[in-house]
From TrEMBL:
Residue stretches spanning the membrane: 21-44, 79-104, 111-128
Source organism of this protein record: Danxiaibacter flavus
Pfam families listed in its UniProt record: DUF1634
Name of the protein this chain belongs to: DUF1634 domain-containing protein
Classification of source organism: Bacteria, Pseudomonadati, Bacteroidota, Chitinophagia, Chitinophagales
Key words of the record: Membrane, Transmembrane, Transmembrane helix
Length: 132
């Protein structure tokens, strides 16, 4: 574990491999979760007729993490799919945070500052609800 925080471990090639693995893992995990949610959803609602004449967005509980997790605990297919979407959206955010950590360990403080600003902009736009 000690070698994980050494500067030699965080050479450019190693960091690129770790970031690539992180992104692949996030996308694959999100796909698996959404696929499992799709199976649950189709098992329950697959025989019904879709109503294409009226758009109905996600239910209110599916718009917040607490409601999504409660739905997942109840094996609600829509909540499981929504969790897959949340994992997919959070994957690049975790990548930015990981990059900041890697730059910090490499003592490349200029890029730490730039990455931290990018991370703050992303978090502010998500928390402030100004993005839509």
């Amino acid at each position: 574990m000690r070698h994980l925080f050494s500067a030699s471990y965080w050479e450019q090639k190693d960091v690129e491999k770790l970031i690539g693995r992180l992104l692949r893992t996030g996308v694959v995990l999100a796909s698996i979760v959404a696929f499992i949610g799709g199976i649950f959803y189709l098992y329950i609602y697959g025989k019904g007729q879709p109503q294409y004449h009226e758009f109905i967005g996600a239910a209110e509980p599916m718009r917040h993490m607490k409601g999504i997790l409660q739905g997942v605990a109840q094996t609600d297919g829509a909540a499981i799919i929504q969790l897959g979407v949340v994992i997919l959206i959070s994957t690049p955010i975790v990548r930015v945070a990981f990059s900041a950590l890697a730059f910090f360990i490499e003592k490349d403080y200029k890029y730490v500052l730039i990455t931290f600003i990018v991370f703050c902009v992303i978090m502010f736009s998500m928390i402030s609800k100004m993005g839509g």
